[in-house]
Write a structure and sequence with these properties.
Elements: E1 2-6, H1 13-28, E2 38-43, E3 49-50, E4 56-57, E5 61-62, E6 71-74, H2 80-84, H3 86-98, E7 101-105, H4 108-114, E8 122-124, H5 130-136, E9 141-143, E10 148-151, E11 154-157, H6 162-174, H7 177-186
Parallel strand pairs: 1-2, 1-6, 2-5, 6-7, 7-11, 8-9
Antiparallel strand pairs: 3-4, 10-11
Helix pairs in contact: 1-6, 6-7
Length: about 190
């Protein structure tokens, strides 16, 4: 199962690495007869990405890759430069329509909206940014005080650590409830399912 996590300069570390850890652990806990999650950090180019706080991330793939994904996950952070990058928005628009599932963490919702993937759904984002998202994209119904929600094959989550809760739910959706529960237990994580 192919999972793409978009990374860009000023990406929030836990927005991207929390889901990465969930899918990594879920792969280790898979039954012998099931497919692993193959998680790729994808960026505009193969150059090092500078995450918030100074963490340096090395992409596994660049936008010119021909890979197809079962899940496209878009983390947040400071997204202004990524939103202004036509290559990033074009890549998101393409993979947002070809991936089986699409998800955002925190302000990643702004990127999905800019790419035309979020149009008129009920969505969420970090509590600090709900008003800004609603103002920028008035056709969206932006909800506060929820960890994550979905509309069809599109999922959005609240800020930062909520991406872990959403990712555990996506493990459940893509595999089984048992595997998601075992992943949370292995991570010693108190999973908030709401």
């Amino acid at each position: 199962m192919q999972v793409a996590i978009l990374i860009f300069d000023d990406v929030e570390v836990l927005d991207a690495m929390g889901p990465f850890e969930v899918f990594s652990v879920a792969s280790r806990l898979r039954p012998a007869d099931s497919d692993p999650f193959i998680v790729s950090l994808v960026a505009r180019s193969n150059k090092v990405v500078n995450a918030r706080g100074g963490l340096k991330l090395i992409p596994d793939a660049a936008f010119d890759s021909t890979a197809q994904y079962d899940l496209l996950l878009v983390p947040g952070g400071v997204t202004a430069r990524a939103e202004a990058c036509t290559e990033t928005i074009r890549w998101l628009a393409l993979h947002g329509t070809t991936s089986k599932l699409v998800a955002s963490v925190c302000t990643g919702a702004f990127l999905l909206a800019k790419a035309g993937i979020l149009t008129d759904q009920s969505v969420t984002t970090h509590w600090e940014d709900t008003d800004a998202l609603a103002g920028a994209y008035p056709a969206l119904t932006v909800l506060d005080n929820v960890r994550w929600l979905n509309s069809g094959n599109i999922y959005t989550s609240a800020g930062i650590s909520a991406g872990i809760d959403l990712s555990l739910h996506l493990v459940e959706v893509m595999t089984s409830a048992d595997r998601a529960l075992r992943t949370a237990k292995q991570m010693d994580y108190c999973w908030d399912k709401n």
